[in-house]
Each structure stands twice: as C-alpha cells, then as structure tokens.
User: Fold these one by one.
Assistant:
Number 1:
Amino acid sequence: MADSKVELKAPEGKPDDVERIKRESNYLRGSLKESMLERISAGISDDDNRLMKFHGSYLQDDRDLRLERLKQKLEPAYQFMLRVRLPGGISTPEQWLVMDDLATKYGNGTLKLTTRMTFQMHGILKWNMKNTMQGINNALMDTIAACGDVNRNVMCNPNPYQSEIHGEVYEWAKKLSDDLLPKTRAYHEIWLDEEQVAGTPQVDPNEHEAEPMYGALYLPRKFKIGVAIPPSNDVDIYSQDLGFIAVVENDKLVGFNVAIGGGLGMSHGDESTYPQLAKVIGFCKPEQIYDVAYQIITIQRDYGNRSVRKNARFKYTVDRLGLENVKAELENRLGWSLEETREFTFDNNGDRYGWVKGVKGKWHFTLFVEGGRIVDTENYKLMTALREIAGIHKGDFRLTANQNVIIANVSSQKKKHINDLIEKYGLIDSEKISGLRRSSMACVALPTCGLAMAEAERYLPTLIDKIDEIVDANGLRNEEITIRMTGCPNSCGRPSLGEIAFIGKAPGKYNMYLGAAHDGSRLNKMYRENIGEAEILRELGGLLSSYAKERENGEHFGDFVIRTGVVKATTDGTNFHS
Ligand code: SRM
Ligand code: SF4
C-alpha cells in the first residue's frame, strides 16, 4: 500500500450557507412537509428548495412567462421539476407508461430523457407533487437522491451488443445506486406518508448513526458514478467523480478499472473552476466495487471544500490533495491495495442506432431522440408512438447517456410488430439524418432552467439544420462528429467532451469550443468567445471544408483541429483555460 505523503486536510473557511441548511434540516426533513401543504404561494422557501433537491426535485418558474407575470404583479409561474432515480437507465414498459401518464396528468405533457439516463418531468404544480411522487413509487421507482449533495443516479452502459456482460455490470451499477442511498426516512415521511419514528435523532454533526456513510451534513457537493463497458464510452466515464470501467476477459467480467476525479461544471471567467477528466488509479474485483465507492465518498465527505461550493466537487479535492495521496488514503481506508490497471480501449462516446441482434435471439432498437425530449408535435407524434410501443413491448427500455432510448430485448416475433409502429409513426431513421445530428446533445436550458444564459435544447436542432448545409456541401453527411450545446457552463450536456461545443454566455451568444476526442478521453478548448449564429456558421464553414479536404484517413474532427493547429490540445483540466 502506498503511504500518504501529506496530511490531508479540508480547506478552512466559513461554511457555505447550504451547510447550515443541511445541519438544521434534521436529516433532510426541514419544513418541507408543511411547505408542501401551504396554499398561499405555489412556491416554497429557499431553504426548503435546497432540501427538495435531495428528494429529486426543485422549484423552478417558467422563464418565458417571467416578464409578463412581473408586469401583472403576479408571483412567478412556479412549478417543480422532478427527476427519477433510474439506475443504468432501465425502465420496464409499465414504468414507461406510468411516466407518460404522470407527465400528461401533472407535468407539461412531455418527458425529458436526461444525459444521465433517466426521466425528468417539468411543470408540476406544488399541489400535484405528492400524487406524482406516489405514482412514481407505486411503479417501483423513486426520486431519492436524484439531485442534492449525495451520490446521484448511477449510470451504466446500456450496451445491447454485449448483452450477457451488460446484465452483470448493470446489477453492480444498480447495487451501487441502491446501497449508496441516504438512509434517512425523510423521503418516505414527506411523500409516502410514512409515520416519523418517535425520537428520530436531531442532528449532531459529529454523529453518524443515522447516516453512517454521509453523516448529518451529507457531502460538500453532488457526487456522480458511472460504469462503462469498453469499447463504448457512451457514459463519458472520464466526466464522473468516480468511474468503473468493466474489464472482460474470456467473455467473463473479471473486475473494474477505477477512475477518480472527473467533473465538467465551471463558471465563465473564473479560472479556479474548470472541467477535469477522471484518472485511472488501479483495478478492483467486482465484489470490491461497493467498498471502493464507499471509501471514495467518505474521503470527499471528509476533505471536500464546504466553504466554496464552486470548488467543492471531488475533482478539486483530488487536484488539491494530489492523485497519489488520494489513492493512498483510499487504500488506507480499504485496508488493501488496488491491483495494476488492466488494459482497455474506448472507440467512441456516442450511441449506435437502429436494430441490432444481441444474445438469446433478442433484438434492440436504438432511437435518436433529439435533445432527449419526448413530445408530440403536429408532425411528429413521438410520445404517442412510444406509448403505443410500451403497450405491446415485453422487453425493457434503456435510456442512454446521449438522451436517446433503446427499445431493448425484443423477441423475433415481436420485432415486426414494433417495427410496424416505428414505421407507422415515422420515427426518425438515423440513416436519414446527418452523422453530426446523430451525435448531438443539448441540455434543457430555457424556459425551465433557472441558470440558463442562452437557449440549448430549443435552439440546437435549428442550428444543426444550418450546419447540415455545410456538412452536405463538403460531403461529410455520414461523419459522426460530436456536437454539444448547453445554456451555461454548468455543462449538463457534457459540452467540454464535444468535438464541437457551444456554451451559452448570453441570449443568442455562445463560447465555441473545439478539439475533444471522439472517444471522450480529451477535453476541448475555447476557440471563439461570445459569438452568435452568423459567426458560428462562418467559422464552421471554413473548418469543415478544410476537414473534408485535409483530414487523414479515419481522422476524427476533434483530432484534426489539434493536428492542424486550430486549437491547442487540452492535456489536463488544469490547462483547459490556457
Ligand atoms: Fe445538470 C444543475 C439539468 C446533467 C452539471 N442541471 C442543473 C439544474 C438542476 C439547474 C439548477 O440547479 O438550478 C438543471 C435542471 C434544468 C431543468 O430545467 O431541468 C440541470 N443536468 C441537467 C440535465 C437534465 C440536463 C439534460 O438536458 O439532460 C441532466 C440531468 C442528469 C440526471 O439525470 O441526473 C444534467 N449536470 C449534468 C451533467 C452531465 C453528467 O452528469 O453526466 C453535468 C456535468 C457533469 C458534472 O456534474 O460535472 C451537470 N448541473 C450541473 C451543474 C454544475 C456542477 C458543478 O460541478 O459545478 C449544475 C449547477 C450546480 O450544481 O450548482 C447543474
Ligand atoms: Fe441549465 Fe446550465 Fe445545466 Fe443547461 S447547463 S441545464 S442551462 S444548468
């Protein structure tokens, strides 16, 4: 076991106010129960809203209506966003139908498939929250820890190509998600009417009895785990606080390489914040995965920054303490050492579309869902189509990390039936859209996200219509170039891992980034600041035309812009800004 070279310490400083809220919340209860019953406002207090996140939800307002409501002297159009915890993104057809029904009854009539493989609903009014939560619970799902300073929904490669390994890896991902949940009964009391046990402990921050792993203050910040099965890096393993990379030898899962310290959020103009990629520190056996996760989480609990939230993610803890020191501390806490890293290779971080045949004669269909939004429009009845498919489907749905959905485990007999529905509703044939669009991703942004500085999900499709003209003019229609857009630098659509990316700065203005690796192993670099559509198209016109003419055989766009000196390679998050 390596020795820790320095004494590990958490940064000193006055704790952020969120620490007070957690401390005073009595294990995430706060006054949420009362707030949700109060009928004078459709909103809740800021303190309760902070706690709501731990329950998978938070209060938003419809930003499209903000000005108008202000003029009319009305309170903002308050509504809640709700995120489901769906380990590995697997939903049964019955669960799909429940989500569809709840979104129609209580939400805004759409579902959002998120970049972390789960469902979000928007537009739920306060008075409908409890019914919605109970509906989700009755369908054997929950929203516990879907947001908040805890471990979030655990991602897992939904790989239909290696179905036999997928099943096993998925079970580990699910176990992590379940076993790392907070132990407080707050969620059950507030939303499911469970009686509060008499004498529920009031908070003593030094006492970890009610929350053995998290403690009463939970983590300094959100924490994310992903599990990848090479060669697919669709879960963007290097963006995770903690990543497990499955190692398969002779068709058997022998264990996982362990990667720590990734995360993508940052703030414009603040170089103390930066995206960072996780680094691989060794290998563990499958049955050791939980202990590794548990101890890594306790290291972040003990040494993460509780004073400055924007520097509180585990990536900053690792960079501050040093990778080797964190590894040594982990091994110390485990009482054993990680083995040498095993070899692995990734080849892309996107999805593969259409029908593929997996094991046991089962078929899987990956459907491109633009911006992850399941909605019926006049010309494209996606929500209805998937509802009908769920009505006859006997396999499962797998939500992907690229905001798409796989209609998975379809028997040969059922395949024709499902394919008839795919054709009846004219669901997007991935062959007929450009490789660029197939590889696109956009975060929610406006109108629901309170942090958005610019549009993303509502704008990227029309921007791609225009980029497609450049793509076609240069014979690049089938080139799978990853393109990602977010409304702000929090980076929910993982933009710093896009070969082309746009991060919102102001309405209609974006910073443009280039040069991430196609397999998700290198961050991109800022190329232009604060530009609008005309300039974006002008820049891409030149770049894509040179790429078409000058690229080397098999060279990806992200590599091309680096080789030809358009941008410098970002070799580590710490040089992202230079
Ligand atoms: Fe995110 C906050 C949406 C994936 C980094 N994210 C938010 C909030 C809750 C806004 C807020 O706090 O006020 C957004 C809700 C908008 C809305 O109206 O729904 C939001 N994040 C999303 C989703 C829905 C984007 C999507 O279009 O799919 C994704 C939900 C994932 C899930 O199912 O759990 C989503 N968020 C991500 C990712 C990507 C990932 O995890 O793979 C990131 C970057 C990776 C990372 O965490 O480093 C991400 N979200 C953030 C951050 C910045 C965190 C940081 O380290 O600085 C925030 C802001 C914050 O935490 O203060 C944020
Ligand atoms: Fe909102 Fe910013 Fe996340 Fe987009 S990246 S969903 S705008 S917080």
Number 2:
Amino acid sequence: MTDELLGQIRLNGAAPRHVAIIMDGNGRWARERNLPRPFGHRAGMKAVREIVEGAIEAGVEVLTLFAFSEENWQRPPTEISALMSLLEEYIAKEAAELRDQGVVVHVLGERARLAPGARAAIDRVERDTRGGRRLALNLCISYSSRAELARAARLLAEEVLKGTKRLEDIDEEAVREKLYTAPWSDPDLLIRTSGELRISNFLLWQLAYTELYMTPVLWPDVTRRDLFQAILDYQRRDRRFGKVTAPAPP
Ligand code: IPE
Ligand code: IPE
Ligand code: MG
C-alpha cells in the first residue's frame, strides 16, 4: 500500500523539495494510554525515524522538524529534562545510521539555552553527518520564529553600525540571509499533526507561500503513509504565488 502511494507520487512528478513538520500530539498520545507525557515523547522519537526514511524514499531534499520551541521551556522541569535526555539518546542511537543514509543534520535555534550535554550531542551529530547529500534534516530545538527574526534584525543592525552594510541594502534577501534557514529554499509543504490549526511561532517568514496540511493523527502514530498522503495532496495544489495561472488549454 505504501508502495502504491510512492508510485503515485513518482507518477505525479516532483515531490516537494522542502517539507516542514510541526510534530505535535505526544502528550495526548500518552494521556490516551494513561501514561506520563515523556512516554509520548519516546514514542514520538520512533516516528522521527519513520518519517526521515519516508522522506528519503519520496525524494524530499530538506526536512525541517519542529522538536522543541522556545515557549516549551515553560513546561515542567521534569518534562524538559525528559525531552533533553531523549534528544541525546536519539543522537547517540541514530547518528551513524543517519550518516550511512546520506542525511546531513543541522540544529536550528537558540543553542545557548541548552544544557552542555545536549549542546555537545548536537555538535557531534552535525560533525558526524557533514557531507550527507541525500537529505538535509533540520531539527528546530529551542527555536521560535519571532526570536529568529529579532536575531536577524540584530545581526543586520550590527553590520550597519560597523559600516559593512548600508541601510538601503537591507531588503528581503538581506533578512533571509540572516535566518537559520538561509541555506535552504522555503518549505513547499508544512504538515502539522494532532489536529491543531495554528503555526505556533514556527517559520513565520519562511511559510509565506507554503502549502499547509493539517492532520488529526497524533505524532507518535504517524507513519510514512501519512507523509505520502500529504505529499499526494500537495501535488494536487495549484501554487499561484499571487499570480494568475494560465488557463488550461481547451
Ligand atoms: C509535541 O507534543 C512535542 C513537543 C512540543 C515537545 P506535545 O508535548 O506538545 O503534545 P500535546 O500537544 O500536549 O499532545
Ligand atoms: C509546537 O507545539 C512546538 C513543537 C511541536 C515543538 P506546542 O504543543 O508547543 O504548541 P501549542 O502550545 O499547542 O501551540
Ligand atoms: Mg502540543
């Protein structure tokens, strides 16, 4: 069945180059089972593996995952430390496999807020996977889009103060270059799981013309089938970017 979906994606032509995902619903998944929330996060870690593999199969080039927001620092300390341990565990378990699959990992966000152990793990996986050509996997950790935009403004202001940039050269491209996502094109498709219909401070600049796909499936239950279905839905969209599409020939 997944093979059929994959075949259909290939028949339709280009897969979205860049897919971004708000991985939501771990807590509710755990609650449905009367388990503490960290069990949901652990189950969610398996789904990351599944979706990375699915993205490679579908020919996605960039996968940007929202794993932990700046606002998530306001959660109970026990949940935060469970999440940070899981991050370290994920990297320890998956780094070699990711490298073998040709995945290059980048972590986007305010790393200064992370504990030294988590920071070291992140540095390690970025170093060990450097050079991966098949898929860029961006993990947004301690990330918020407004903070990213404020940081970009600060970086530009610094250059103007230093005299290395002129005020009149601050245009959209100049801002874009200061975002964590500067090396990649904007997401073509954004998926949010767990039925919430909001962006939650994720990639506000980059999502300007992204196609949105919201699914009720909770993140730990997500399989590559869900990813393929989202891609098939995306392939049916008419992306106009504010222009008028040419009418179909009679
Ligand atoms: C997403 O699941 C993971 C993180 C935000 C870290 P949640 O923990 O937000 O799960 P729900 O939304 O409470 O179900
Ligand atoms: C968004 O989910 C952040 C991540 C998935 C990491 P949240 O669960 O934090 O978002 P809200 O609070 O429902 O908007
Ligand atoms: Mg949530």
